[in-house]
């Protein structure tokens, strides 16, 4: 009997809702089936996004600014929908159903996109004019089909990204030392898979799109997603499932609703009089920050039953610990806000930088590098930086000062600084490219090597390696235990808002710098614009934002020195 009990996982059930047998469910085999969906998600999303600007400009005959905004809005929506996907998974569907449903939606979107590139009625006729203004742009109907395809992919991406890593981690038992170690290794492999999937997208898939055909490229995305869905479903009977426990978003809404309802209530001077019903071991000490929210824990006459016992209603009365958890999440917001600008600069690597590459000499012998494949230097920089940091920097710092690497906020700071450097490098490269364009105005391919763009790709890739890992570490370790899932979603919203801000900034710059016959910094023809000024503007905004981040980080460190209810980070340092 004891052996049978030990074979079970306490907090997991099988597909029928019965206790699972550890020897027959979960583990690496089932986790690998789940990882497959992330490989195809990265293959599809990155393979489409990094080369979409050349399709929008070259086939749909849209301007540079319009094309860039379509891409950044598409990617921004993808990451923003991670919050919706996480909410549905935590509250209603569960992670398994969320992955199955949203991966099917993404497969449908990529299928529609592949069909739209094949049917002549769904894109304008070819145009060989040297000026884009002489070409017939896509009609409203053609653009609606394109947008429908892209946003179906965005919906699928949002649902998948919110659940794949968590469902994969569910296949390992935290209380089993062997499986706990495997779980830690799973996260390392998972991040590696994301990077390798992106690398495959920006090389092989982009080459197929440019040299074989868009229909083949997008069709491969669709077919691979359908195959991986079948592989994922094949493990249904062998997965471990966790029950839906409700979304932290609801808890945050409850605290704010209760506080607003009791806005006229007076917080007692004795904190012990505030409502608390959690066991002592799970409680978080009261703090003095954001004291308006303390009103959610004030017990009033309306909270009592006839027998004078407290009638608990989470929309009217919240325990102190739940209020403090919300306070902890609010304290993360200054750091959250000052990391958005990095993803605005990142957006240029898959929009304007790709279009820059399309105007430059890309031949090596008889082989022409696809413009979108320049992103390989960006992905390569991420992989190299992660390897150097893990094998060289971390051991050196541990030997030098006893700490295993930079703290999470230090990594974010490095990433922000590198983004400023990357945009400065991009501006310098564009000045050189425009100088060549002025002396060769009628040339389709400018006599200047595309490798001039490598520094901006490489520096931004290094920056992402630092800021992505730093943000993920910060938002997970500094959030309360019950809100780890939503903290990841909040981190991903910085990516989303960064892309949206890029779209807004492009629209503003286009409106301010261009009028009438004047194109402005960004517009129809990249060779007649001033993209170097736009990059310079981003570098200036990034530098200002870097200063604001340093202030936010200093404030957060002072706050933790006063109140430290959050669990310590893995490196033993909050800063």
From TrEMBL:
SUPFAM superfamilies: MFS general substrate transporter
Topology in membrane: Multi-pass membrane protein
GO molecular function terms noted in the UniProt entry: transmembrane transporter activity
BP GO annotations: oligopeptide transport
The keyword Transmembrane helix appears for this protein: yes
Any one GO CC term of the record: membrane
Transmembrane segments: 70-89, 190-209, 215-233, 330-349, 369-389, 409-428, 448-468, 489-514, 534-556
Keywords recorded for this protein, A-Z: Membrane, Transmembrane, Transmembrane helix
Record has Membrane as a keyword: yes
One Pfam short name: PTR2
PROSITE patterns: PTR2_1
Localization in the cell: Membrane
Family the entry assigns: Belongs to the major facilitator superfamily. Proton-dependent oligopeptide transporter (POT/PTR) (TC 2.A.17) family.
PANTHER family: OLIGOPEPTIDE TRANSPORTER-RELATED
Protein name: Uncharacterized protein
Organism the protein comes from: Rubroshorea leprosula
